[in-house]
Amino acid sequence: MKIEGIDKVLIIGSGPIVIGQACEFDYSGTQACKALREQGYKIVLVNSNPATIMTDPVMADATYIEPLNVARLTQIIEKERPQALLPNLGGQTGLNLACALNKAGVLDKYGVKVIGVNLDAIERGEDREVFKETMQKLGIDTPRSGICHSVEEAEKIVAEIGYPVVVRPAYTMGGAGGGFCYNVEELRTICSNGLELSMTHQCLIEESILGWEELEVEVVRDAKNQMIAICFIENIDPVGVHTGDSFCAAPFLTIDKALEERLKKDAFKIVESIGVIGGTNVQFAHDPKTGRVVIIEINPRTSRSSALASKATGFPIALVSAKLAAGLTLDQIPYWRDGSLEKYTPSGDYVVLKFARWAFEKFRGVDDCLGTQMKAVGEVMAIGKTYKETLQKAIRGLENGRAGLGFAKDFNKKSKEELLEMLKTPSSERHFQMYEALRKGATDEEIFAATYEKAYFVQQMRELVQLEEEMLKTPGRLPADELLVKAKKDGFSDKYIAKILGLREKDVRKKRTELGVVEGWCAVPVSGVKDQYYYYSTYNCKDESTASENPKKIMILGGGPNRIGQGIEFDYCCCHAAMALRELGYETIMVNCNPETVSTDYDTSDKLYFEPVSLEDVLQIYHKEKPTGVIVQFGGQTPLNIARALSDEGVKILGTSIDSIDIAEDRDLFRKMMDKLDIPMPESGMATNIDEALACVKQIGGYPVMIRPSFVLGGRGMEVIYDEAMLREYVAKAVGVTPDRPLLIDRFLHNALECEADALSDGEHVYIPSVMEHVELAGVHSGDSACIIPPVTITKENLATIKDYTRKIAEALHVCGLMNMQYAIEDGKVFVLEANPRASRTVPLVSKVCNTQMARLATRLMLGEKLEDLKLKDKKFNHHGAKEAVFPFDKFPKVDPVLGPEMRSTGEVLGLSDDYALAYYKSQEAAGSFLPNEGAVLISLSDKVNLSEQAIEIGKEFQKLGFKIYATEGTAKFYEKACVKCEVVNKIAEGRPNVLDIILNKQVNLIINTPWAKRDAIKDESAIRKAAIKYKVPYITTLAGAYNTVKGIAAARNGHGAVKSLQEYHASIEEV
Q: Tell me, what's the pLDDT at 1021?
């Protein structure tokens, strides 16, 4: 069933993971590739994100990992000549790009037809003026509002509506640039910023509907104009908190049927008028006082909500959307209940909740508050039989060290009044604060006044508090039988009951099992395909699922919610493990609770349990399914946290043993092993108080030192310390330091080149596809540093040493499967920084650049194959890949965007080219900072002694390329001595015009500003960097980055390079 004249389809992906656009689009893009290939189409896929399974060469016929912009896409269209473009599965990025290609006339020139959406229709949905007119014609109410193209116009509009108002820029995503304004000052600031960010330079100013109920409907429509409502989502947090940050429930829990019907009717009218084929998400607001319903917005594409709706209902929206776009209609797709899909109605006797995961702890000086801009970095979804049970399952899936809602932070010590005051500002802690406020006796009315949360949800939570208080009457003892049974039915976890009563989790588990309180599993049937299900657990019904008797069965533990430090790279590994096991004839079982990912897709594994990856849930699934073994090394930190406890309960862990993982994590044991192997590490020591710390610094050889708590992922709490005052401050602030969890202090390597190697090992032999060389020097977290693979400046001797050390360490740790090694080279000497005997975030990067499927091969090694069976050969590469990290600093304007040892990036992009400098240039382009070909550069170096030769070379190169150089006084003097001409510009305190003025007047096209290492000297600099972000001037904070930039600009002058697909790059690799 194909559309005539269409053979090859182009799909645009969503680019790197940023706040507001996460991996739910990889999930939809991957589904689309599957659906279209089934229909017999060839696929060309473009996406700049290397971490996702979507850009794997197995997914499409030609995969381009290229920057997502009009120029690059034109090159690809010209080369591949697709007949059609499917734009509504790549998030806002894909949609905006399709519109831009259309406006530029590229689609017409090459005869590319857009399928799935009508581009004029997109404008009806996205362009605020057109949308408002369309709604008025349909007789659907919208908030009172006006459109402005300037700040003066905005002030006129407000004169009619009155404050407070909301500002929403057109064509942006995740609520970027918008906000609430209560007075004219706020209006001027937010509006001018919003106009800058909008593609069409327009903003909508509308009346505030703060505190109304926010309700969403997911609709799917086909070419015959048949429509079905897939799912109704109720936001438990009211309007005023972005839906991406809101706590949400599906189906509607407190909304009456008449209103539901009315919303469905309105949603159908809207979708029909806009003419989308496939999925659309429609958002309404309902004022419970007056009953007025207004439409907030529509997304004529698969969105974050559609990933949630798909997983909540078992209706794969993206898969069905792609099939509909490719010419099928709903009546041709099967439906498990009534034959075919046009008869679909939402059903299911269960409750689904989504809870967001934030990363405020990563950014110094950020207020933890939620508003109309999305700030979450990931989410979990829980399924259960009752609201209470599901709520508690969601909390345990969050991976933030909490097993339940009570006693979070110090909220329990606060008075009711203090808590109600805190609740007035929505924050990531709101539901935890509410729990304690209820414990202190807050009423429904008091809670509603502070939060607008509905009485039903408050009452449900109050009942949980009352039950908990009942249990707390007998601390140190197990609760009475009927109380324990009730607590389990209401979702209290074993771990939480044990924690609040001061018992062992084991004893709680033993007691409830004796009472016959065990999880049963219920099925969610999948629509649109034959006989597919996935499962969720509950303590409120009998077990309805059957486990197979298959002896070849393996369980894979997923990574839980996306967060900074643990992204979709781990999901990529889990998916590959499932594929490899299927090829080897094993049955696979996946356990995960992240609705945005491919691993929780119904057909990635043979059986999916949509569950929190916690000890209680995993153990019960293990006893039910009785698999031969469990894979924990692919899901990042999440499964590793429970691996030891699983193993103690008799679970067979495949691959590297838990003891080896512990040795690598434990600094002391690891150092002893390195000494034995005669492998150098930076000098270091441990301390539990300030006197020990001072003695330790002396013994290491003085400042600077690197300090951190033991046992972390993503470098949390790491800092470089330059003097005694900073050391005293750090030690005073450090929490939870005990003799068995001391602070670790290392000598900070000076101007050291950092590099890492991902290796496959079977415990005896090791295979390393290639070493990665970091651009930023040691001291920047490896997840935040740009890196180039294969390496460019590492000497042959050093590479040989790295391979040798990696082999020795893998043998000593008996690694079986994947391992990641980090090294630093200081003055030609290789030091080991750390070893991680598990999947790391660079696995997909190495796999794609080197054409070595690391995760699949590792899975085979874990099942007992040897390296020689895999017949891997060393390779010679004729191309380079450059990875660059993408940061969320634009969402947190108060944060200074300086890189350090703590990881802060949300995602990454990859630039590929035959020339390494051009690859670096493309990686910057893909990350959204276009390096200028000419113009002016502002250079301000804090430290001119260190690396002065490199600094001079950078100046000379820019001069050679004909750039005008502006410099602050000290830097200018330094350059004049070296015969580099500069124009001196004032620092901020030295008079006008100063550095900020030349940035604001757009006189510079590039800023190079290296920070002082000490935190107090950055007032001037941080102002420069924040201005650079606001005015979108590319800025660089390291000399290494500047050096590669100037090389890249020079390389790009000779032409930007042809585009090649991943498949072509792989074909050019030679085996040695």
A: 72
